[in-house]
Structure formats: C-alpha cells, structure tokens
Amino acid sequence: ATSEWTLDYPPFFAWFEYALSHVAKYFDPKMLVIENLNYTSRATIFFQRFSVIFTDILFIYAVRECCRCVNGKRAAKDILEKPTFILAVLLLWNFGLLIVDHIHFQYNGFLFGLMLLSVARLCQKRYLEGALLFAVLLHFKHIYMYVAPAYGIYLLRSYCFTANNADGSLKWRSFSFLHVTLLGLIVCLVSALSLGPFIVLGQLPQVISRLFPFKRGLCHAYWAPNFWALYNAMDKALTIFGLKCNFLDPTKIPKASMTGGLVQEFQHTVLPSVTPLATLICTFISILPSVFCLWFKPQGPRGFLQCLVLCALSSFMFGWHVHEKAILLAILPLSLLSVQRAKDAGIYLILTTTGHFSLFPLLFTPPELPIKILLMLLFTVYSFSSLKSLFRRERPLLNWLETIYLAQLVPLEIFCEIIFPLTPWKGHFPFVPLLLTSVYCALGVAYAWLKLYVSVLTERISVRQKAE
Question: Which of 23, 119, 238, 248 has the fewest CB atoms below 10 angstroms from its CB?
Fold first, then answer.
C-alpha cells in the first residue's frame, strides 16, 4: 500500500476530492503526487484553507434556511436578542467546527451544510428534497448513518402516512404507497450512482471493508469522551489496583493500549474486551427509546430534532472507534432546539462546553494554545450570555452542580497544559492529560445525553401537538 492509513470515505467524497484536484494543480501540482505523504508548501496550505472557506458557502446557506424554520414567538426589539440571530451565531461561529475545519483542516462545514439543509427541508415539509440531500450526504460521509434512524422514522411517520386521528394516533389507512415508492427511488438512484461502478467491477466488498475498518481499536488514538473512555479508564484503574495487591500476574498483562488510529486490535486486562458487535448492540438499544418517542409521541420537526440529537449522542456514546470530532454531529442540530426552550438551552450549554473542550487535544502545539483558549472563551461567553438573555424570564439554565462541573474545566486545563509538563510524570505517563480530559468530558457528555433523554421521555404532549 502507498500509505499506512486507509481510505475510509464513501465514493461521493472521492469525486469531491477529484474535482478539487483539478483546481489544486494550478496552485502546486506536487501536492497531487500520491507518494508525497508528508509534503507541504505555502501554496498547498493556502489552497487547503481557501477550499474549506469556499465550500463553507453551502453551510452558510443551510444556516440561513434553518433560521427561517425557528419559531418566532420570542420577538425582541433588539436584533441581537432575536432567536434567529443567536442561532446564526451559534452555528456560523461554532468553536468546534472552526478549529476542526480551519485549523486542524477538514471539510466538515460542507458536510454539515448538507445535513442542516436536509433538516431545514424536512422542517419546511419539503420531504423529498430533504430525503435526497440526506441520501447524498450518506455517500459523502457514512458517519451520518448514526442519525439515519431519525430520518427514516420521521419520513415514514410524516410523509408516508399522510394523516393522524383526532387524538394524534396514526391513521393507518392514510398510508401512501406512492410516497414510499418515491423515497425508495431516491435512495436507490443515489446509491446506484455512488456504488454502481464498484458493483459492476466486483469491488463492493473492498469498499465496505474500507468504510468499516473494524480491526481498528475500540477507541481512537485519543479517547473520545464517551462510555468506552470511562470503561477503558476503569480497566486501567483496576489493572493498577490488581498489580498493587498482587491479584494480577505482570507477565500476563498485554503491553498494548486500547487505542489506535492504525488497523490493529487490542484487549482489555481486567474487564471483558469489547467487540464491534457489542458496541453495535449497545448503540441499537440506546437509540430505540428516541425512535419509539418519534413514532408514538410525534411533535413534528421538534420531535425529529430531538430524536436526531439523541441518535447522534447514543452513537457517540457507544459506537466503535468513535472520533472526538463526532460530538459536533449532536452539538450543531441541538443549537436549533437551544433557542426555542430553556430546558434545551441548559442541555446545550453543558454539551457544547464539554464537547468543545474535549477537542482541545487536536491542537497541541504551543502557538495554538492561546488561540484555542481565546476562541473557546469567546464562543462560550457568547453562548451563555445570549441564551441567558433570551430566557431571562425563566428559571436559571444551569443548577449549581452543573455550574461547578463546568467551572472545573479551568483548573483541568491549567493542570494539563502548564503544571503537568513541568512534572517528572510527563516522561513516564505522557497519556495522563489526554486521559483526564477524555474521562472528565465523558462525564459531562453522558450527563447531557441522559438529561435530554429524561426530558424527551417525560415530556407531555398537548392534544394540539398530537393532531399536528
């Protein structure tokens, strides 16, 4: 192989990169030489930055369409306090998306633009457009399969069944075979366009094996702040305790860790080792209640967004080899809910603060330290102040315990970035800062996930909402 890293994006993204290459050759043709794995030049960096900014045009348009879908009941004289303006800022200046795309360098803004535009089209009841956009998105980046159950159930409930009874229950006779056929045609045609050439050439198994490299570790090289980070940390702690108490034989403990970006497998020491099938089952079970609510407690676009966020969070919590950047899949759509209800705004503040903080290790060089801290401070201060102002007539968005938890992120960052590098532990335990960041943020993400689930499951639906 030319590179040790696998090609794990669907075909549409390959065509996207192919289109970019025709422009890139005018900047620096050497960047297109496959063997130049570590090649860099000013022209290459300029092209990469410029191409990300240019493709963000789709994201900007999608944000505009999402703002048009926001309920305008909370009118404000000052434009800075209007829900639509606050939502636009929360999306366009999202700290996580900014550092991942424009500093770390990726094209997530373009992809999230497709997702938000599909969400906007479903909210506008332009179901076929929304379905088409999401089908195309799946063949650009298959991580969006995490939220596919929300799309599938919502389209089936709202588009394939065209009417409800007076009490909000489903009118089974309203099933439209035509609508199902149209949705099926969209999915089949997009899939045929993407995967058809590989099927004809007999290369589909090769594509599937690259898209789902299950031989990678349970966690990424840096543990994403999810359930498995807590599980790994518990296994590490039990291993240390077992060695201290002579319960474990040091010669039988595997030297490898449970993480890896390359294709390789690892085993836990004390706790049972986790297989891809186990993570799939856990993810499926954790998603089921949200899908159940979307079907039996329909709330229109709001219920769809709640289910979408819960599907994204559930997959993030229990998925196999989850990247830390995947938290944005939940944060961005939750922004739409945060400007409409105080309870969702509180959950948003917890999730976005811990989720964004967990991205800090992506920027690890000294010059990037003040940049990431200042950018996150700006975004976090605006998020808290704007949402607090929007819901100033309601109860506080966070309770005292939640406030204390978030405040502890400050001493954690000081310890990881300033104190720990000065200690002798750095040479012997270099993974400690990543471990602490991941585990502490995992507690906040898990709490936000559970709090949103409790909110959705215990929420009472009015008769009017059911009828709608």
Answer: 23
Instruction: Of 367, 351, 346, 291, give the one whose Cα is nearest residue 316.
Output: 351
Residues 465 and 60: their CA atoms lie apart, in Å, by 31
| 177, burial (CB in 10 Å: exposed 0-12, middle 13-18, buried 19+) | exposed
How far is it, in rounded angstroms, from Cα 55 to Cα 30?
23
CB under 8 Å to 65, separation ≥6 — which residues? 116, 117, 120, 121, 124
Q: 221 exposed, middle or buried (CB, 10 Å; 0-12, 13-18, 19+)?
A: middle
What DSSP character marks residue 324? Answer: G
pLDDT (tens digit per residue) in 175-204: 999 999 999 999 999 999 999 999 999 988
Q: Tell me how far apart the alpha carbons of residues 227 and 287 are, in angstroms, rounded to a whole number.
A: 15
Question: H helices within 325-429, ranges in order?
Answer: 328-338, 342-357, 368-390, 400-407, 409-414, 425-428
Amino acid type, 268: H
- Rounded to two decimals, what is the model's pTM? 0.92
Give Dmax (Cα) for the chain.
Answer: 72
Give residue 258's pLDDT: 46
Give the tens place of pLDDT for each residue, 135-144.
Answer: 999 999 999 9
- Residue 236, both tokens: 């590490």
Nearest to 358 by CA among 9, 100, 91: 100
Residue-wise pLDDT for 285-332, tens only, equals: 999 999 999 998 888 899 999 999 999 999 999 998 888 899 999 999
| Dist. CA 330–CA 309, nearest whole Å | 5
H helices, E strands: number in the chain: 20, 0
> What value, to the nearest 5°, has the Cα angle with vertex 112 and ends 198 and 103?
100
CB 28 within 8 A of CB 43: yes
